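Exercise 3.2. Students should predict the tertiary structure of the chain below and write it as structure tokens, then compare their answer with the key that follows.

Predict this chain's 3D structure.
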Amino acid sequence: MQHETIQEKSKKNTEAFAKFTVKDSVFTTLFQDKKYLIQLYHALHPEDTETREDEFIDITIKNVLTNGIYNDLGFRVRDKIMILVEQQSSWTMNIIVRALMYLTQTYHDYFEEQDADLYGSKKVHVPEPELYVIYTGERVSKPETISFSKEFFGGKECAIEVKVKVIYDGKENDIISQYVTFTKVYNEQVKLYGRSKEAVTETIRICKDRDILREFLQSREKEVISIMMTLFDEEKIMRTHIASERKEASKETAQKAAEKMLKVGKMSTEEIAGYFSELSVEEVREIEKRLFQTT
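Answer key:
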């Protein structure tokens, strides 16, 4: 029997659910707009008042390798600074490893773009890197910086060091603090309404009323709702698929055990079915029929 693929199953699901990645989606969309990207840069570098909009270059990794490396946001300010930013709602130190991979790939792309001769005697220009994670989850301990050597080698000096600055709230209603507040409002609405369109529309209404990302939400409300809603919940589909696979594996094990019990011949089909929640009496009779037709 041919099993449905996850995609085929998803087509049958017509109920609209909010994406589990909703905050990531809004994060990416928000900062694809240079107006808000510049606000993000100024939140990170308030001392720089001279950089112009046309000096920002998008270097976000979209999916450049077969293993699917990509990050939320990457941009370069001239050839001076490379800034890679991730949004994280659940805590993991693996973000440091991912940041290292993003940085390596980003440098690779930069040197390709510049036709840099890495084997020549002349020292190549290397933009200064800055790595950030904007953390929107709940956490008691809030380190300002997380370090590769400290977290993975106990602070021992090693050939590679990566430091990622962690941002939790932003400052004085800047674009970061507004985004973090948006995620908290959304979480509150999900608790009230579940992953539904009502939770999405209430999040937008409340944020506009509180002057949180108001301009962005007013100008692109339909797009934001579209981003936040989907015809199927990918995570739910995946959970259903995994549960289905486990159930089928469990049933196969029960069928094999029932075959052995039938061969012994000391129990009725009704008694054997009573041992297995996965099998009905009719299914045990079918196994018995197949078994003794082939023996």
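Discussion points: Residues 234-264 form the longest helix (31 residues). The two ends are 24 Å apart (CA to CA).
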